[in-house]
């Protein structure tokens, strides 16, 4: 791959996008970072790097704005991380989820295809799919490899199948240099409060700050997940665009597997309040769930040599401290 001078991160204000920007800034000098964002996007996750990145306003559902950003800046690499990424919300808002994730991705790829045909612009494009595309796997199918059948169990998962297949089709038909990832469970500081690990950590921090009664509300605690720190995830994404082949798909995930309940117990042990109860909240149970996600990452490791470095206990401690710091600053939820 040619030298990377400029990258565009869609979803730079989000959880993974902001960590990716941090990683590039801290480990690689001379690379210009562009961030695609909507005017109303909250910027808390990137306020510490405002003076080090270039913000490009646009919308994945607005083709002219995408074309202007890409034509004017011509990044060498596009990390497409923007998405409606909350599974539970997708059951309530399936059309918005499909529009944001499938139509938004189609717009991005179509702009790149058009610029490639008319001006020779030919970036590497990372399309971030998800392990959710595999759905509820059978016990004999774990660890899950890239050839496993896709059985999407939520509108979000369906949208990610759409993104995934669009990326493959644009490579097959137009040789747009897409590389797909199916990332398994990843978490850490800045994770949205609607996701299990961050939700539990925030509830514990709220209790510690004496802003809520000592009860953590939960959904299905029996689901099995393999956890990865987001800071290891973004290192994997950087290796992906430097070492992996267009047209391919790669599973990326951690190596520490446990139930959601076991993860919660780790967080509870980190709390200075030892009298916290756990209560099932029916609103947190999904109409259809994915309860067994253990990845096979051999394909990606063979190409890149990547391996997770941050222990999950450290991830949970940092996530809990993130919410503790939040309440010290803000004083209330």
What would you call the structural class? alpha/beta
Order of helices and strands: EHEEHEHHEHEEHEEHEEHEEHH
Question: What is the percent of helical residues?
Answer: 40-55%
Q: Give the number of DSSP strands.
A: 13
The parts where pLDDT drops under 50 for at least 5 residues are none
**CATH architecture title of the largest domain:** 3-Layer(aba) Sandwich
Q: Report the total helices.
A: 10
Which CATH first-tier class of the largest domain would you pick?
Alpha Beta
Question: Can you give a write-up of this model?
Answer:
With about 325 residues, the protein is an alpha/beta fold. It has 2 domains: about 5-185 and about 230-250, 3-Layer(aba) Sandwich (Rossmann fold); about 195-225 and about 255-290 and about 310-330, UDP-galactose 4-epimerase, domain 1 (Alpha-Beta Complex), CATH 3.90.25.10. The protein is built from 10 helices and 13 strands. The protein has a 7-stranded parallel β-sheet with strand order 3-2-1-4-5-6-10, with helices on both faces. Strands 7, 9, 11 and 13 form a 4-stranded mixed β-sheet that branches. Strands 8-12 form a two-stranded parallel ribbon. Helix 2 (about 65-75) packs across helix 4, helix 4 packs parallel to helix 5 and helix 6 (about 195-210) packs parallel to helix 8 (about 260-270). The mean pLDDT is about 95.
């Amino acid at each position: 791959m040619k030298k990377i001078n400029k990258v565009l991160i869609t979803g730079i204000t989000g959880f993974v996008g902001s960590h990716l920007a941090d990683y590039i800034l801290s480990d690689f000098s001379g690379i210009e970072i562009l961030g695609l964002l909507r005017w109303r996007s909250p910027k808390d996750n990137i306020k510490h790097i405002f003076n080090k990145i270039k913000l490009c306003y646009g919308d994945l559902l607005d083709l002219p704005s995408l074309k202007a950003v890409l034509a004017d800046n011509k990044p060498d690499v596009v990390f497409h991380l923007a998405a409606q990424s909350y599974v539970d919300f997708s059951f309530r808002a399936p059309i918005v989820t499909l529009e944001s994730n499938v139509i938004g991705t189609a717009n991005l790829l179509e702009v790149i295809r058009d610029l490639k045909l008319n001006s020779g612009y030919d970036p590497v494009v990372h399309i971030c799919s998800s392990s959710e595309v595999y759905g509820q796997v059978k016990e004999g199918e774990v660890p899950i490899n890239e050839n496993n059948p896709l059985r999407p169990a939520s509108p979000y998962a369906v949208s990610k199948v759409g993104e995934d297949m669009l990326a493959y089709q644009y490579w097959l038909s137009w040789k747009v240099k897409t590389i797909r990832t199916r990332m398994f469970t990843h978490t850490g500081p800045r994770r949205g409060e609607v996701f299990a690990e961050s939700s539990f950590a925030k509830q514990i921090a709220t209790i510690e700050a004496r802003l809520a009664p000592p009860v953590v509300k939960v959904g299905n605690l029996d689901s099995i997940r393999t956890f990865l720190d987001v800071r290891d995830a973004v290192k994997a994404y950087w290796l992906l665009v430097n070492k992996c082949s267009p047209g391919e798909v790669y599973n990326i995930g951690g190596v520490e597997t446990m139930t959601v309940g076991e993860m919660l117990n780790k967080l509870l042990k980190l709390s200075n309040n030892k009298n916290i109860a756990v209560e099932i909240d029916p609103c947190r149970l999904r109409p259809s769930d994915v309860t067994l996600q253990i990845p096979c990452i051999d394909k990606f490791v063979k190409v890149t040599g990547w391996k997770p470095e941050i222990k999950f206990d450290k991830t949970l401690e940092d996530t809990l401290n993130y919410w503790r710091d939040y309440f010290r600053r803000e004083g209330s939820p």
